[in-house]
User: Fold this.
Amino acid sequence: MSGYRFSLQKYEGMKTRFTCPSCENAKRFTRYIDNETKTIIHKDVGRCDRVDGCGYHYPPRDFFKDNDIKIEQSNWGAAKILRKTSNCKTPSQINYSDVRKCISGLDKSSLVQFLYKKLGKEKTAPTLSNYLLGQFYYWDNINPVFWQIDVNDKVRTGKFMKYNSINGKRIRKPRRFINWMHTVLNYEDYNLVQCLYGEHLLNRYPQKVVGIVESEKTAIIASIFNDDFLWLATGGKSNMKSKMFEVLSERKVCLFPDINSYDEWCLRADELSSIIPDIKVSDLLEKEASEREREEGQDLADFLIRGII
Assistant:
């Protein structure tokens, strides 16, 4: 692997093998490292050695693409990071005409099929309309599109992922299934600056306490069950940045971390308190979760749905 900028970490004892972020088996995960800096790229960038039992593989190439990090590469061995898109630039946006093309016939979407079966169409459809959930055919599947629309009604992008229509879970094997609408629609020179999922609803519900979860799916499900909060999603732990939360500076905010993320989100809440004076972290799941639920890394949506199954 000599000469390659990024490679899987060489085995130097079990200290160089970690818990897989997908199957959560200990000491089965090998991380990618940057051979110039001798540091890991990200804790989730790597490969599980349980090829048949798990198959998780998140290479640097996909990580850079998911996080809008531009790279130059005549070949992978000579890869060089050029820049990361600056949030100081004007965010690009997707035309509403492209959004409208993707928000009809939602009954065919894998995630919506699951939600209709578990919660009923009458109960679910108004929430899907509120969030402008879309759909897009890709990977031989009709996938839900989570449009990121900011407080000024500008469509920053749409993220789509592959879901199982039977259990409503993300499909992560044999690889991560995640992509962006600005990419597949061939928008050129796109400056992606993400916003909170559901942010466009802030002006519609100015008095509601804002509930923050990680997953877009969880925000939708929580909204169906609990109308007291306005539910928004970060779309990933890496998105819990101050810039994204500035829009909530005058709102009451409560963070609802996934199981096993409580301590990390408490630290983030402390950091965000300079921007959002009225912010707290819910310990609901931390108190209620069983050992099995902790091992599975369940979130608020799992608890809410299990209550009616």
